Structures are given as structure tokens and as C-alpha cells.
Amino acid sequence: MTAMAYRRAAIEANVVLSLGCKWDHTILYGASPIWNQDQKLIQVDIDPTEIGKNRPVNVAIVGDAKAVINQLLEEMEKNLPKEKVTEWSQWNEYLQDVRKNDKQQLEKMLKSNKLPMKPHRLVYEVLDFIPDDTQLVIDGGDIYVFSLDLISLKPRPPRSFFRSISMGHLGTGIPYAIGAQMAKPDKLVVCITGDGSFMFNI
């Protein structure tokens, strides 16, 4: 509901430049209907075993993402036609408009008093209440999806947000929170978990 700009970019792009991205379940393995199967894929990864693992690539580059980006920018400044820059700028403006609409829809949902309460509203109220330096833990499963939309709404200090990587395993939230509290006993630790994730620890 709040990711139409991302989906439009994924389905409408003629070329995708992938920088250190694991094409796993979190982006549907690069498959339809999210991704256009006719688009060209340029995959950059420092690990050669990740290249083309889940989706065929048109151009494979094994290297450090920062180094590759700097080389690409240098070449683009020399050789990229100005009309192509204009075309990309127009497409970016179009995506920004879609993203703005996403944000408006999200804000409308967050202010809604309809019952039953939407999970987004619950997460928003928690994030709005806790101090900025809270050690925040998000469990796996659907609650992570609902929370991820909102994490970027408020700036957070480095190393204050913890989650299970890639597979989104359920039940990791409470153990992570205990570990975070042991590591920083002077900080408030908050774990946002769903009913299924919580029951893994009962």
C-alpha cells in the first residue's frame, strides 16, 4: 500500500543497476509481477557467487560497490548524452510524485481512528512515544513489514535498530531485545513483535 513508487520503478525500468543486492525473497527473486522480465539487469557484487544466483543478468561486474559507482559516474560525466539526463530527471520527478502520494496515503491511515486499529497505526504510536535513542527491535513476520514503512519517518542513532536479516525469522525479537539490554543496560529497549512471533518464545 505504501510502496507504489518502488513497484512502478521495478516494473517500468528498462535497465536495473543492482549494487550488492541479494535477489532473494525480500524482492521476490526478481520475478513477476513486481519485476519486468524484459528489462536488462546489471549486477554488481563483491561476491562472485551472488551474481545471477536467482535471476539471470545481462552484465555481471564483480567488484566493490563504491569503486564501481565512482567509475560509472566518471564515465557518465564524460559520455552520457544530455538528453538522457533530461529523460532520467523527468522519470525521477514522476516517481517522486508517486512517492508523495504513497506518503499521503500512509499519513491518512496513521491518523485514522477506525476500529479495528491497523497495525501501521499501532507501530506509529509506539515509535512516536519512545525516546529517539531507544534500542528498537523488530521481530520477523508481518509485523516487520508493517514497521519497516515507518522506521524512516524519524531519524535514529547508528546501531539502535535490530532485526533478523533476510529470512525474517519469527521469534527472534525477544532474544534480540534481551541481548540489546545486556549490551546497553542504561538504554531503553523496545521490542515490537506479533502474536505468532511472540508465541515462539512461550
Q: Strand order, biggest sheet? A: 1-2-3
- Name the quaternary structure: single chain
In CATH, what is the homologous superfamily of the largest domain?
Answer: TPP-binding domain
Strands, total number = 6
Fold-level CATH name of the largest domain: Rossmann fold
Helix content: 40-55%
Instruction: Give the termini separation.
Output: 32 Å
Question: How would you characterize the overall build of this protein?
Answer:
The structure is a single chain. The chain is of the alpha/beta class. It folds into 2 domains: 4-107, 3-Layer(aba) Sandwich (Rossmann fold); 119-199, Thiamin diphosphate (ThDP)-binding fold, Pyr/PP domains (Rossmann fold, 3-Layer(aba) Sandwich), CATH 3.40.50. The protein is 45% helix and 13% strand. The chain has 7 helices and 6 strands; from the N terminus they run αβββαααβαβαβα. It has helices at 4-12, 65-79, 82-110, 119-129, 142-151, 173-183, 195-199, and strands spanning 15-19, 40-45, 59-62, 135-138, 161-163, 189-192. The strands form 2 sheets. It has a 3-stranded parallel β-sheet with strand order 1-2-3, with no helix packed on it. Strands 5-4-6 form a 3-stranded parallel β-sheet. α1 (4-12) runs antiparallel to α3 and α4 crosses α5. The longest helix has 29 residues, at 82-110. The protein is globular. 17% of the residues are buried. The model has no long low-confidence stretch (mean pLDDT 89). Residues 6-72 form the Thiamine pyrophosphate enzyme central domain. This is Thiamine pyrophosphate enzyme TPP-binding domain-containing protein. It comes from marine sediment metagenome. Keywords: Metal-binding, Thiamine pyrophosphate. Residues 153-202 form the Thiamine pyrophosphate enzyme TPP-binding domain.
